[in-house]
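User: Please predict the structure of the protein below. I'd like the answer in C-alpha cell form so I can feed it into my own downstream comparison script.

Assistant: Understood. Taking the following sequence of 74 residues as input:
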Amino acid sequence: MSGTDRVLAPGRVLPRPAKVKVTFGKPVDLSLHEGSVADAGARRAVSDLIVRAIAEVSGQEYVPVYAASAKTRG
C-alpha cells in the first residue's frame, strides 16, 4: 500500500481523504514449509520469503537484519 502517509500523516489525529494505491504481487508458495510451524528455522525461512516478495513489489531493498540482532549490535 502506498499513499497511506497522506491519509494519516505523522502527528495528525484525524485522517483525511486521500488516494491509496494497493499493489498485489505474485502468490508466495509456502507449501514446502507445511507442518513445520514449530521449527524456528522454518518460520524464519517463511518470513524471509514473504519479506523478499514485499521488497520485490515495493521496490525497497531487502535487508536481512532482524530487530533482535540489530539491538544486540547496539
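That's the full C-alpha cell string. The mean pLDDT is 81.
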